[in-house]
Amino acid sequence: MADKKKEPKTYGTNIDFNAYNLRPASSYLDDIKRLKDQLTVTLTGPGGSVTTKKPERPSADELEASMDEAKLAADKLLREMETKGGAIGPEAPKTEAEKSPEKPDLDKLLAELDSLVGLEDIKKNVRSLINLAKIRKLREEHDLPTPAMSLHLVFMGNPGTGKTTVARLIAQLYYAIGVLSKGQLVEVDRSGLVAGFVGQTAIKTDEAVKRAIGGVLFIDEAYSLAANTGENDFGREAIETVLKGMEDNRKDLVVIVAGYEDLMEQFISSNPGLQSRFNRYFVFEDYTGEELYKIFLSMCEKNKYRLTVEAQEFAKRLFCDLYLTRGDNFGNARDVRNIFENVIGVHADRVASDPEIDERDLTLVFREDIEKAAADDAYRNQLLAELLIQ
Fold it and tell me: How do the domains of the chain map onto residue ranges?
């Protein structure tokens, strides 16, 4: 009876030969066979003469015995390396594919969250959410029951209220506590998900979902996906594709949808799948005048601009009145950013013609700079006129 053919031995650890400058074993065996055929043995004969001859071919039994001995040695080496943390053990040096950036420091991220101007309710909600996710992760690690919990979020508020900034922090916080594997933020809107032809929207949306796996997919102005704009509107197809991606990657993908408060309520109620997956709502209130002023000062400080006392007083009144007279076009921090950029432009025009510019000139901002910068926005002209009368 013929001997039963032995199954090749396999190991639980996959070896990346390139990572260790090695080749597969079969490659080395081919080299040995080739060298054996080429090898000559040099012998010194009587009188110092040199002769060469090819070695005798070893028998099949001798070759098989050598191979068996080599296999036993290799098996022993592999077992030792796996148990002792050698080149392929758990403590082995990682290949490039296995290397990942260091996880961010949780305390630093929370400190960054606390440093944001305003958003007090949002900060409390984020801390509570992170605590809940952290404890849930620890319960999983201890094989304790973990009630079903959705980490997907709805951000509701006007433009410029910090929704994207908070979403980016949440992505990193989830990563820091081990809920997500990467912590990146992929930001898209309708144009990043919806295509103009049949069959392309699902592909385009699926690509965005795949980029976000391991992190957060942030969909700004998400309500526009549910708005029926005509016969060939594919927004609802994008919604269905996102929902499928959320289900397929529920352990390593978080989706945050954002937009105006009333429109987001309509968006969530437009699809039962959205209602079941999004049950946490964060409302971002408009910044107050004092908070807008603090944001402006932080922009100045970050870029090393200093305001005179008169400039500070004028800026504070400007932003307080900007808040009190806000309308539908109010942009919160975006308006502050626009004014700041106008200020540094006016400042540059003023000092550029000075032949002897020093550091003080490069950093000091006057009241007149802010007045002129604010006047560059047409809808603020009336507000500025009222301020100048005071």
Answer: 17-84, 106-284, 289-389
- Give CA–CA dist 210/193, Å, rounded: 12
| Contact criterion met (CB below 8 Å) for 133 and 151 | yes
Q: Does residue 286 have a pLDDT over 50?
A: yes
Q: Give the percent of the chain with pLDDT over 70.
A: 69
Contact between 345 and 287 under an 8 Å Cβ cutoff? The reply is no
Single out the residue of 81, 164, 45 nearest to residue 116, CA to CA.
164
Contact 331, 339 (CB under 8 A): no
Quote the CATH superfamily of domain 106-284.
P-loop containing nucleotide triphosphate hydrolases (3.40.50.300)
pLDDT of 86 above 50 = no
Look at residues 292, 290, 384, 372 and name the one whose alpha carbon lies nearest to residue 331. Answer: 292
The domain made up of 289-389 has a fold known as Helicase, Ruva Protein; domain 3 (1.10.8)
Whether the full predicted model's pTM is greater than 0.85, yes or no, is: no
pLDDT at 291 over 90: yes
**Contact between 115 and 107 (Cβ < 8 Å):** no
Taking the C-alpha atoms of residue 213 and residue 196, their distance in angstroms, rounded to an integer, is 25
Beta strand pairing call for 185-188 and 216-219:
parallel
What letters, b where the CB count within 10 A reaches 16 and e where it falls short, cover 31-42? eeeeeeeeeeee
Residues, the chain, total?
390
Single-letter residue type at 322: L
Rounded to 5°, angle at Cα 180 from 178 and 182: 105
Mean pLDDT score across all residues of the chain:
80
- Both structure tokens of 42: 């040099």
Helices (H), the chain: 25-38, 60-84, 106-115, 120-141, 163-176, 200-212, 235-248, 261-269, 272-277, 289-302, 309-324, 333-352, 359-363, 367-375, 381-389
d(C-alpha 170, C-alpha 161), whole Å:
16
Which residues lie closer than 8 Å to 205 by C-beta, 6 or more apart? 193, 194, 237, 238, 241, 242, 245
